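Follow-up to my post from last week.
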Amino acid sequence: GIQVEQSPPDLILQEGANSTLRCNFSDSVNNLQWFHQNPWGQLINLFYIPSGTKQNGRLSATTVATERYSLLYISSSQTTDSGVYFCAVLNRDDKIIFGKGTRLHILP
Amino acid sequence: GVTQSPTHLIKTRGQQVTLRCSSQSGHNTVSWYQQALGQGPQFIFQYYREEENGRGNFPPRFSGLQFPNDSSELNVNALELDDSALYLCASSPGTGANGYTFGSGTRLTVV
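User reply:
Got it. Predicted complex:
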C-alpha cells in the first residue's frame, strides 16, 4: 500500500522562528490533508490540498502531486503552534493513510 | 462537527466495548481510526450509507455499524491490553475526496 513519510520526526524551535515540515508519499493520491493534533487529541484540519499552494494566516502549504510531496510552512512560530502535525493522503480507494507525524515544540 | 462518546473509558481485558460517533450534518461517510501513543492514526474501517466499504488490518473482533442518521458505532470484543489507544471517528460528505472532519476521540484504557 501507499507509504507516507514525514520529516523531521521532531523539531524544537524558538518562538518567532520559521519552520518547514515535509510529507512524501509513494503513489498518486486523490487528496492530501494537513492536520494539527492538539494536546487533547483533537485533529484540526489545516489544509485540504491535493495540489497547488494555499495560505491561511501564518500557515501555508504546497503540494506537488507530480513529485509526490507536500510542504507545510509555519512562519513566526508561537507557543500555541506546539503539537503534532500529521500529513494524511487519500489513496485510490478513498481511504486515509496517515504519516507518523512531526512533533513540534516551540519554546518561549 | 463530529462528536464522540464517551471521552474516556477504562475496561478490563476480555470485556467488550462500544464507542459512538455522530457525524457532521450532511456527511454520509464515516471512518474509524486507532491511534496508539506516539503513533499516527491507523485506519480501522469505513462506512458509506450503512455499508462497510473498506477495512484496514484489524481482526474481526473490531466491528462497526452505521445508522440511517449517519451516526456510527465501533465495537471491540475480547479486549486486549494492546487495544488501549485513542479511537478517532471522522466523517466526510460523499466518498471522502472532499476531506474529512475528525472528532475529539475516545481514549480507551484496557487494564
